[in-house]
Structures are given as structure tokens and as C-alpha cells.
Amino acid sequence: MTTEARIAFVLFFFAVWCFVGLIPWAIAAVVARGRGALAALPIALAAACAAGVAIPLIGLDNFRGFLLSLVIAFMAAAIGSVAGIRIAQRLWPVRATNRRAPRGRARAVNSEGSHLTRGTDT
Q1: Cβ contacts of residue 24 below 8 Å, gap of 6+?
Q2: Which residues contact 28 (CB under 8 A, 6 or more apart)?
Q3: pLDDT tens, 11-45?
Q4: Residue 1 has pLDDT above 90, yes or no
Q5: Rounded distance between C-alpha atoms, residue 24 and residue 29, angstroms
Q6: Helices (H), 1-122
Q7: 101: Cβ contacts below 8 Å, ≥ 6 apart
Q8: How far is 26 from 73, CA to CA, in rounded Å?
């Protein structure tokens, strides 16, 4: 086997492990409603690849080892996704900027004491 073929073969394994790692990341992103999911993506993929590489390194380099590496990559990506989302949510907490502005009389009452609207009539 040529060197180029070996490199392509190894890259194929990494692509498969990354694809397997995307599945639990996508599920975790939906559960978290996207908050912190983008920051967790590289953590999940790195965990999946590291776990996938660990299986052949311990000696399971046959077809059973390949299937086991897929399962282990899935579980490691799930753990990495949850950990990455938790870390991202702690670093960048959700701010209450999506609240609706009051309408009608409530708007007029609330804007009377604001320092931003002094001197304006609403």
C-alpha cells in the first residue's frame, strides 16, 4: 500500500469518527436550544476522534475494534458535547434581552422614570 493510500485510509477513519461525533452533538444542541452548542462542537469532535483512536492503540485493530471505536466515539462525543455546552453556558450566560417591550399605558408609565428617555414624549 502506498503512503498516499495509507494517509487516505487514516483520514477516512477520522472523517467517520467526526461524523459519528456530530450525532450526539446535534442532539445536545437541540436539547440546549442552541445555547453554547457552537462552542461545544470542536470539543465533541475532538473527544470522538480521541476515543476512536484509542481503541486501535490498545490492540483492537480488526473489524470488531472498528465497530467498538464507533460506539466509543459516540459516547465520548456525547460527554464532550454536554461538557462543552455546560462550560459555554457558564462562560456566556443568557441575558434577558429578548423580552417584549410593553405596549400602551404600561409603556408610558414605564418610560416616565427612565434615564434614557428624559425630555422625550412617548
Answers
A1: 44, 74, 75, 77, 78, 81
A2: 37, 40, 44, 78, 81, 82, 85
A3: 999 999 999 999 999 999 999 888 888 889 999 99
A4: no
A5: 8
A6: 3-31, 37-57, 63-91, 105-112
A7: 107
A8: 14
